[in-house]
Structures are given as C-alpha cells and as structure tokens.
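agent: user wants the structure for Transporter from Actinomadura decatromicini. delegating to structure tool.
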Amino acid sequence: MASVGLLYVGAVLFLNAMMLLGRVEARAAAVLNLFVGAMQVILPTILLVNAGDDVSAIAAAAGIYLFGFTYLYVGIGLLAGLDTTGVGWFSLFVSVVAIVFAGINFFDAKDHPFGVIWLCWSFLWFLFFVVLGLKRDEFTAFTGWVTLAAAWGTAVLPAFLLLTDHYSTSGAFAAVFAVAAVFVVAGLWVLARPGRTGAAAPAEPAEPAEPAEPATGA
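agent: tool returned. relaying tokens verbatim.
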C-alpha cells in the first residue's frame, strides 16, 4: 500500500514542480492535488482502522496525513484563489514534524534510507514555507527544481524499488542516497539560485507537495 501511494506522490510533486516553474497553470494542477490528497487521507484512515494497538502502524498513518492534508489544502486553495500563507505556514509545521519522523526511521524502524528521505521532505517543505508562507518569490525557481528532483528521487524511485522488492534498508544505501541528495541540491542552487541571470520564476507560486508516503508511514 505504501509503495502505491508513494508512486502517485511522485506524480503530484512532478506536476507541482512544473507549476512552480511556470509550465503548468495553477488551477490545472489543482485536480491532481485533490486526487492524491484524498488518497493520502483515505489510505491512512484504513491503516488506523486496522492498526489496533500497533504503534508503528499508527505512526505510519500519522505521517501520511501530513502530506494528504497538504495536497488537499493546495488543491482547494488553487481552485478557490486563496492566499498562499496558510498552506505556507502549514508547510513549516510539516517540515518540523518530518524531522521527528526521520528520527523514528533512523532509530526505531531502522529504515535508514527513509530516514534520509524524510529529511529531504523536511527541507522541501521548508522551501514551500519560504516561497508560500514568507512569499519570497526569488526562491520559486530553486524550489521548483528541488521539487522536481524530489518527485523522482524521494518518491518514484523508492516506490519502484518497493514494488519490485529491490528496496534495501541498509545504512550503506542510505549514505549513498544522502550524498546524492546533497550534490543534487547544491547543483540546483548553483543553477537556479536567487538573482542568477536566466533563472525562471512563475508569476504565481503554488504549493507542490512530498512528499509523500514512506515505508514507516508518510
């Protein structure tokens, strides 16, 4: 169930990245945000119903709700023309809580790669806070490219690894993933940093969304 949800999180992050980069009109992106947001609320509800006293299953559901509410908030906001500050400050909340879920993956679940992925989501949602909550439009292009990288690297890739039974929870895999993530973000900063000549930014930034659904519960 987690791998299927994660795949479609990659889809909505991809579309929202295109929106931030000015390739997709904001209202056109709203529909997929609503579809994926609804899925990310329905799935954890099913998990909770069947969780009983299983603390790990309850924690997994709690993580998924963070992203489901984000996508629903974005989709409704885009269609209704709402100011972005609400979803922006909610993104800051998600960013902070994601650090806790990273720790759960590192130390309790012993799923080190998803610990790194949760940290990536924390950083991405912090960028959403900067662009949407603080309205720092000069970071829109950088945020769009980081969202695009996160769509493939933190959602689509792990989803297919899980679906094909090639996923590994090893520390070595996590270390490679972490180094790759740092290099990608650094490279994107050089290419799309604020003030760089030729860096594109859309007139109306809108919120993508993350992440997503990890093996322990996002």
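agent: one observation worth passing along. The mean pLDDT is 89.
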